[in-house]
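Subject: complex prediction, re-run

Hi both,

The earlier run crashed halfway through, so I resubmitted it with identical inputs.
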Amino acid sequence: MKRYAVSALLYLAAAFAAAATLISFLAIIADIMIKGLPEISLKLFSPVYDGENFSMLPACINTVFMVAFVMALSLPAALFAAIYLSEYSESETICRLIKSAVQTLASLPSIIYGIFGYLCFTVRMKMGFSFISGALTMSLMVLPIMIVSTQSALASVSNQIREGGCALGATKAIVALKLLVPAAKRGIISGAILSAGKVVGETAALIYTLGSSAEMISGLFSSGRTIAVHIYAMCCEGLYVDRAYAASAVIIIIVVVINALANFAALKSREERW
Amino acid sequence: MVNEKICIQNLSVRYGDVNILKDISTFFKENSITALIGSSGCGKSTLLRTINRLTDLDGNCAVEGKILLDKKDIFRDIGANELRKRVGMVFQKPNPFDMSIYDNIAFGPRIHGIKSKIDLDEIAENTLRSAALWDEVKDYLKKNALKLSGGQQQRLCIARALAVKPEVLLMDEATSALDPTSAAKIEEVMLELKQRCTIIAVTHSMAQAIRISDKTVFLANGMIIEEADTAKLFTSPQEAKTKQFIKSALG
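This time it finished cleanly. Structure:
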């Protein structure tokens, strides 16, 4: 009888936890959508920001550039680092050392990256508050996540594929690039999506590197703000919380669209296997 | 004078502390099929994987002794990739790559520098014919190889191995995962291939060894217990262990 009681209790606890997660998720979304959607107006999407319209269009565009640039920098780097870790490194000790370093880096709070980026890129390398110093900082930040996810995607590819390639006389590099990476594509893409999400949502690492100028960036060395920084700035100023809500609603829509697109792409590539 | 395509001299293989093969010496004749038999874990697959140095992929694996391919030491005189081009392998589980049938076959030739579409087309047709798969797939070469049936996948893997023109073909229980009809087709293919390849096949099926092989090598506990022409080994085995194994394996 006691056993049934325990199991019923466990069931209740699990159900409660699941419900609480779902409800808090829905509550956040609902709160933001209810307060944010009515605030969205054409004015918020004027091409140029001024003290009247508080346009978030420049921030949206900056965000897109930021995501694209950070991906272009970190995806190839992460890919090769992961290939090295999973296919090449012979010494287990070095491999384990690198992996634990990477994992530690992946769990550092983002403000640490912000301070590092500020001291290193903004000040020391004299890049100032600029797109490039923000992008470099963000790349450093997402690189560990992407390395870990890419490496585990590669490691989960069946050994039969490695052996099959090797048995034809393929070098390790060819096996890795032509067979393992395509086979691990889904895992690699989902790591990249996760990282893109981090870039979209990041503020702490960007405030001291990218800066928070409200204009659209005009080049690598111009300052700007992403949507998340925009929301942060609006909230900080205290007077424009309604605009922050509107921007939050937009950011949620963007994230949902990015995820949907990525899932669609993954699905599509699976169908093409025909 | 027999032509010894592959000659194995005092070969020992260890995985960590475990001796898988213990001081093995034998040879494999050119243009013949040799069957390796023995119970699971006797080292026959390891022997096969040492011949194309797939054992290199495992850092725990230590190899001692010599294997000669056309009198050249495969560990010293031939690079691993060059060796694997000359010594092809078909695995127990079909392992086609996640790409089209055509690209599977073209994979080997492409990495060895053949780029011309005309050459690749010709290789695809020839190897698929040799593997008795051409008639079934000739209209679907762009189809993903993973959509083929298990038996077709395995014949594709044979075609893929043949595409780099190997001199030796290692087959690791290549028919054990297949239905009898598919297995019979592959046996026919093997008999055909014997004309241009030296085939070494690990098999669990005594009937198969009798049907297709010229010579049979019986291993137990990492040692060669007995080797002889197949007919002779199965009709009048000399060693007690061989007799016992054949008796239990044939039921």
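The mean pLDDT of chain B is 92.

- K.
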